[in-house]
Predict the 3D structure of the following.
Amino acid sequence: MRILKKSVVCIMFNAAFYGLITNTVLAWSSGPPAYRTGAAGDNGTCNVDGCHNSYSLNSGSANFSITAPAAYAAGKAVKIKVAFSNSSGKKHGFEMTALDADGNRVGTFKKIGNTTQVISPGDAARELDKEDKDKYIEQSTKGAKKKSWIFKWTPPSDATDPITFYAAGCEADGKGTASDDYVYTTTAETNSSNP
Ligand code: HEM
């Protein structure tokens, strides 16, 4: 009987310890898993079951926008802004990718400063495939305190226009859970300046 009690206590302790580690080490507020922009070929958005699905997609009252140049020149990096406005959220986050008209993920993202991060294939927790290196950018831990983010995107030379930026955003209550947060999606298009 005593041994049984001991092992039950031991199992409970490990479960609690594991839960603590997971939540601390893999906090999604430090940047969500890859493939959550709502683009074709992604695994939905932040609003999937078990995540930020307290409210239906785009049912919040904030504005979620992408500001990107209407035209691009191959290989010439441009600045892109993702922003929330009219938001009462305490924390915010986003994830973005870019698809051409054939559905290929195109161009490469690069952070400016430390409020965003480009998801790396080496980051096991975020599960990005090697071939999608530099194709996904998101908020960082510091960036979750911001409502807008500016970063760079370098256009490809061989895409089929138009190229569409896909972003999913989370307007969160800052309570450190995935509940009671609103999720939004938006897109923006750009075309080559020398078709
Ligand atoms: C692009 C998609 C996503 C964005 C922008 C995002 C953003 C955020 C933000 C800003 C927070 C802080 C919430 C708060 O403190 O109130 C957060 C927390 C959380 N998110 Fe997400 N999230 C996304 C996708 C996901 C997904 C797909 C899951 C489930 C697999 C998830 C699970 C969680 C959990 C469990 C927390 C609470 C604990 C923590 O900080 O990790 N999120 N997320």
About this structure: The chain has one domain: 31-192. The domain at 31-192 is CATH 2.60.40.4060 (Immunoglobulin-like).
